[in-house]
Amino acid sequence: MRLVLVLGDQLSIDLSALLKTDKAEDVVVIAEVADEACYVPHHPKKIAFTFSAMRKFAQKLRDDGWTVAYTKLDDPENSGSITGELIRRAVEHDAAGVVYTEPGEWRLIEALGNMPLKTHSLPDTRFIATHQEFEEWAEGRKQLRMEYFYRDMRRKTGLLMDDDKPEGGKWNYDHDNRKPAPDQVDYAGPMQFAPDKTVAEVLALVGARFGDNFGDLQPFWFATDTGQARQHLAHWLKGGLPKFGDFQDAMLNDNRFLYHAIIGLYINAGLLDPLEVCQKAEEAYRAGAAPLNAVEGFIRQIIGWREYVRGIYFREGPDYTARNALGHDRKLPAMYWGGETKMNCVAKSVGQTKAEAYAHHIQRLMVTGNFALLAGIDPAEVHEWYLAVYADAYEWVEAPNVIGMSQFADDGIIASKPYISSGNYIHKMSDYCGSCAYRVQDKTGEDACPFNLLYWHFLDRHRERFSGNPRMGNMYRVWDRMDGARRETVLQEADNFLQRMDAGQPV
Ligand code: FAD
Ligand code: DLZ
Ligand code: SF4
């Protein structure tokens, strides 16, 4: 007999390791371990979601006839690591070896590869593109533009295709999307599930062990099995998808979810299959229940961006998370962990992250990510923060988004220019600025929006690297045309702001 490892983000009944082994002979190993729960200080909701879904998946496997060796976190025999548990179970069951599906993180790939047991690693077939397909696509290209990769994924899956042409004649309908924040949101938000007995037990454990981690454990309402996740998906397809594209980039003080799907955590943990999700969205379009701009935009996020960032993570190798092309070395300020800040956009984005283990893409990119980049925060600290605080965060997807897209620390593999903006963009896309202590209109002075000051500070300190970038020339021309004394004031005020922040003063 062999052991079959199932990790906390591999909770799929069609996982390659389960398909290639034998339920009559082999033993599934699922383990709650301190190493995985503590390698970053995960949000308590994320840990509770993971353990609850693991326990329910183990029960589903047992119901399906598998033998499961499940280790709970508080099991006195728990060795504390995935490899430790495999070794312990191998002795217990006299196993000939371990079969597993490739993990989504180099750290674990290396640890499993170095175990003193016979191992057999299988590809993770829950993705649309194989590693080889991504490599072949990337080979020889000067720039790895997601858009072209996405078109290949459309052709491969047949999603939104009209024979060999894109549905509606265009591959991308983004110019119809991304409207400013709406006055009213006519979708009630994600479906919420009351904790059942399994979840309640996990909540007690997580509250006792991880109650001091950043993040609110209660109220806990995530789906924790595939049936619930599918119910939530159906609810969102009906109520959220039709306006998903329109308000994808909008942000509101009083609405944490807008029309977003809140399914990243379910897909990444294995509760929902990405292709199934996209097919359901396409069905909604074909039935006339959602417009093409919404459905195309949504499908692009999943078969485009999600697959593309995974390709980059595995192509770039284990050192990717240590990259720091811009040489940023400032410490992550306390406001990211809930410390006081006068910047309403940051307070709201961090506040909802603390409450929900969730913020949507533009909050992650253009508020917390933008601020960290403008302020010159060490990308490794930024990366650890994102990996810890979001329920959907696993390194293969988080690192390219943070190190690459958001912090430009990979020197432009993902982003052709840094995602930076002054307060103006946040003002346009949200209602945050109206209730902020700073004034978004002010470019200098005591009340000036810090994004306005830091924006020029960033451009000025990275002039050598970016002034030749054709997409940034305009920004430098505006800066250079500014009166010299005014430029001095901006830089001085930005420095003062950073000094106050570094000294731990609320800014
Ligand atoms: P929606 O906005 O409704 O989008 C639907 C789905 O599209 C998502 O669930 C996700 O599966 C996929 N998707 C959309 N954008 C991306 C993207 N850029 N990369 C990969 N998949 C995408 N996503 C994660 O899954 N895990 C992360 O740890 C993560 N960290 C991020 C960090 C930063 C700095 C940024 C800018 C983005 C990050 N993203 C991450 C991408 C994106 O923000 C989330 O996938 C999304 O906010 C999840 O919420 P949702 O399910 O409501 O998504
Ligand atoms: C995120 C997470 C947590 C909090 N705990 C566990 C765990 O105890 N056992 C486990 O198998 N997986 C856990 N996970 C998910 C893993 O961290 C994830 O499989 C790796 O990071 C690879 O993506
Ligand atoms: Fe954020 Fe500046 Fe607007 Fe305040 S004024 S909410 S700091 S963008």
TrEMBL record:
MF-aspect GO terms: lyase activity
Pfam family, one: DPRP
Transmembrane domains' residue ranges: none
InterPro entries noted in UniProt: Crypto/Photolyase_FAD-like_sf, PhrB-like, Rossmann-like_a/b/a_fold, UV-DNA_repair_photolyase
Entry keywords, A to Z: Lyase
Keyword Transcription regulation: no
Protein name per UniProt: Deoxyribodipyrimidine photolyase-related protein
